[in-house]
Protein backbone atom coordinates (compact mmCIF):
# COMPACT_ATOMS: atom_id res chain seq x y z
CA UNK A 1 0.00 0.00 0.00
CA UNK A 2 1.05 3.57 -0.66
CA UNK A 3 1.64 5.64 2.49
CA UNK A 4 -0.88 8.45 2.97
CA UNK A 5 -0.45 11.83 4.63
CA UNK A 6 -3.17 14.23 5.71
CA UNK A 7 -2.54 17.92 5.16
CA UNK A 8 -4.53 20.59 6.96
CA UNK A 9 -4.51 24.10 5.51
CA UNK A 10 -5.50 27.45 6.97
CA UNK A 11 -9.27 27.46 7.34
CA UNK A 12 -9.34 23.79 8.36
CA UNK A 13 -9.69 22.13 4.95
CA UNK A 14 -8.11 18.64 4.91
CA UNK A 15 -6.43 16.84 2.04
CA UNK A 16 -5.17 13.26 1.92
CA UNK A 17 -2.21 12.81 -0.37
CA UNK A 18 -0.01 9.93 -1.48
CA UNK A 19 3.40 9.72 0.20
CA UNK A 20 4.82 9.40 3.67
CA UNK A 21 4.92 12.43 5.95
CA UNK A 22 8.69 13.00 5.58
CA UNK A 23 8.41 12.94 1.77
CA UNK A 24 5.48 15.37 1.83
CA UNK A 25 7.30 17.64 4.28
CA UNK A 26 10.27 17.79 1.89
CA UNK A 27 7.97 18.73 -1.02
CA UNK A 28 6.41 21.52 1.03
CA UNK A 29 9.78 22.89 2.18
CA UNK A 30 11.18 22.78 -1.37
CA UNK A 31 8.18 24.72 -2.67
CA UNK A 32 8.45 27.27 0.15
CA UNK A 33 12.13 27.85 -0.67
CA UNK A 34 11.42 28.13 -4.39
CA UNK A 35 10.27 31.14 -6.32
CA UNK A 36 7.45 33.31 -5.06
CA UNK A 37 4.07 31.53 -5.26
CA UNK A 38 5.55 28.14 -6.08
CA UNK A 39 3.06 25.41 -5.25
CA UNK A 40 3.74 22.07 -3.60
CA UNK A 41 2.51 19.43 -6.08
CA UNK A 42 1.19 16.11 -4.78
CA UNK A 43 -1.25 13.36 -5.74
CA UNK A 44 -4.65 13.23 -4.06
CA UNK A 45 -4.91 9.83 -2.34
CA UNK A 46 -8.63 9.44 -3.02
CA UNK A 47 -9.00 10.65 -6.61
CA UNK A 48 -5.47 10.14 -7.96
CA UNK A 49 -5.56 13.67 -9.37
CA UNK A 50 -2.77 16.22 -9.10
CA UNK A 51 -3.11 18.60 -6.18
CA UNK A 52 -1.20 21.86 -5.77
CA UNK A 53 -1.09 23.62 -2.42
CA UNK A 54 0.38 26.94 -1.40
CA UNK A 55 3.04 26.03 1.20
CA UNK A 56 2.31 29.22 3.15
CA UNK A 57 -1.24 28.00 3.82
CA UNK A 58 -0.26 24.58 5.21
CA UNK A 59 -0.80 24.42 8.94
CA UNK A 60 -0.18 20.74 9.75
CA UNK A 61 0.70 17.40 8.22
CA UNK A 62 -0.06 14.03 9.76
CA UNK A 63 0.96 10.51 8.75
CA UNK A 64 -2.05 8.22 8.46
CA UNK A 65 -2.00 4.53 9.34
CA UNK A 66 -1.70 2.29 6.31
Textual characterization of the structure:
By secondary structure, the chain is α+β, with helices and mostly antiparallel strands. The protein contains one helix and five strands. Strands 2-1-5 form a three-stranded antiparallel sheet, with helices on one face. A two-stranded antiparallel ribbon has the order 3-4. A hairpin with a 6-residue loop joins strand 3 (40-43) and strand 4 (50-53).
Q: Write out the strand line-up for the largest beta sheet, numbering strands in chain order.
A: 2-1-5
| Overall morphology | globular
| Spatial gap, N to C terminus | 7 Å
Share of residues in helices: 10-25%
Q: What is the beta-strand fraction?
A: 35-45%
Low-confidence parts, pLDDT < 50 over ≥5 residues?
A: none
Q: What is the count of β-strands?
A: 5
Largest sheet: 3 strands, antiparallel
Order of helices and strands: EEHEEE
Structural class from helices and strands? alpha+beta
As a whole number of angstroms, the C-alpha radius of gyration is: 11 Å
Average pLDDT metric: 94
The total of helices stands at 1
